[in-house]
């Protein structure tokens, strides 16, 4: 997916019937949005999507081998993605669809408000045959990173590769509480059960717990104890509040080192945190060290992203 940042006035959002801090997905009925947004001048183009964002930040911070599998359209945006990943030395395999579009997320910036419009395009078209070929070429004993978004977009594929992932280290990012109300929940639950590590925010763990047990939890400690297994690590963030995590079936907390203020852009901070978690587990650090890396990388990303956004729109 490619992130396309566009500076806009509130009047543009109103004309397009978009809400500040809202989210809309192109679904065929609103293709007019895609046509209009593509004609606007972008202030920045960059690789995007939660999984790819995590890999990009990880490539900049940690010197470890990375391999990304995805599907794209055969268009100008594909070249932008390929060039960026080549520069970052991220190995990738893209299944290319000539009659489809590379996925895009239009980020409409209005002061400190932003509205997101996503065109999934070819990103949901990844085939079983292509993935099988890619997985056959991977070395043994690798870490797999899966997001809830990826699972929800590829239900058949996710089920198909489940047995392969059981034999490897698997880190799961819950991604969004919105994924647990429909049929995709059952697939995400299967991944949850075989994951060595699960990362998510409080809202995601809370919603997942309610779907699993059908009841309201008392607190985050109850959520993590009842959801997790003894040898599984669960890590729960909650904005500027303490981070909770499990170790050998017990729940611990880690305080946020500093308050960054209200006027910061936290979009993507969870991806940076996940990158730190991936790096720490790959390097076999202690869970305490891993949590600290996640916090440090997330803080760094927030400050850099806030500065970048301010330069673009003010």
TrEMBL record:
Keyword Nucleotide-binding assigned: yes
Record-annotated active site: 271 (proton acceptor)
Catalysed transformations (reactions): adenosine + ATP = AMP + ADP + H(+)
All residue ranges annotated as the Carbohydrate kinase PfkB domain in the record: 38-295
Entry protein name: Adenosine kinase
GO BP annotations listed: AMP salvage; purine nucleobase metabolic process; purine ribonucleoside salvage
Pathway named in the protein's UniProt entry: Purine metabolism; AMP biosynthesis via salvage pathway; AMP from adenosine: step 1/1
GO terms for cellular component: cytosol; nucleus
Family matches, as SUPFAM superfamilies: Ribokinase-like
ATP-binding among keywords: yes
Recorded GO MF terms: adenosine kinase activity; ATP binding
Keywords, ordered alphabetically: ATP-binding, Kinase, Magnesium, Nucleotide-binding, Purine salvage, Transferase
Protein family (similarity comment): Belongs to the carbohydrate kinase PfkB family.
Cofactor (UniProt): Mg(2+)
Enzyme class at the top of the EC tree: transferase
Known EC number: 2.7.1.20
Described purpose of this protein according to its UniProt entry: ATP dependent phosphorylation of adenosine and other related nucleoside analogs to monophosphate derivatives.
């Amino acid at each position: 997916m490619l992130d396309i940042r566009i500076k806009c006035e509130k009047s543009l959002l109103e004309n397009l019937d978009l809400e500040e801090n809202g989210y809309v997905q192109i679904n065929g009925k609103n293709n007019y949005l895609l046509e209009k947004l593509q004609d606007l001048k972008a202030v920045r183009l960059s690789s995007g999507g939660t999984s790819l964002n995590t890999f990009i930040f990880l490539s900049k911070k940690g010197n470890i081998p990375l391999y990304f599998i995805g599907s794209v359209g055969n268009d100008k945006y594909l070249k932008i993605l390929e060039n960026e990943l080549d520069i970052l030395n991220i190995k990738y395999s893209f299944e290319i669809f000539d009659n489809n579009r590379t996925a895009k997320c239009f980020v409409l910036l209005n002061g400190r408000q932003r509205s997101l419009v996503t065109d999934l395009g070819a990103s949901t078209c990844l085939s079983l045959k292509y993935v099988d070929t890619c997985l056959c070429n991977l070395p043994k004993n690798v870490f797999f990173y899966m997001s809830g978004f990826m699972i929800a977009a590829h239900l058949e594929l996710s089920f198909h590769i489940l047995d392969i992932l059981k034999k490897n280290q698997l880190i799961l990012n819950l991604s969004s509480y919105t994924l647990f109300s429909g049929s995709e929940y059952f697939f995400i639950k299967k991944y949850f059960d075989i994951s060595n590590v699960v990362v998510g925010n409080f809202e995601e763990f809370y919603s997942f717990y309610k779907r699993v047990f059908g009841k309201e939890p008392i607190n985050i400690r109850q959520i993590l104890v009842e959801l997790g297994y003894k040898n599984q690590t669960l890590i729960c963030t909650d904005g500027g509040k303490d981070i909770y995590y499990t170790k050998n079936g017990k729940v611990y907390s880690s305080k946020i080192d500093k308050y960054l203020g209200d006027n910061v852009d936290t979009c993507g901070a969870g991806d940076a945190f996940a990158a730190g978690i991936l790096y720490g587990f790959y390097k076999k650090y202690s869970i305490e060290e891993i949590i600290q890396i996640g916090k440090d990388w997330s803080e760094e990303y927030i400050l850099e992203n806030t500065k970048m956004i301010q330069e673009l729109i003010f």
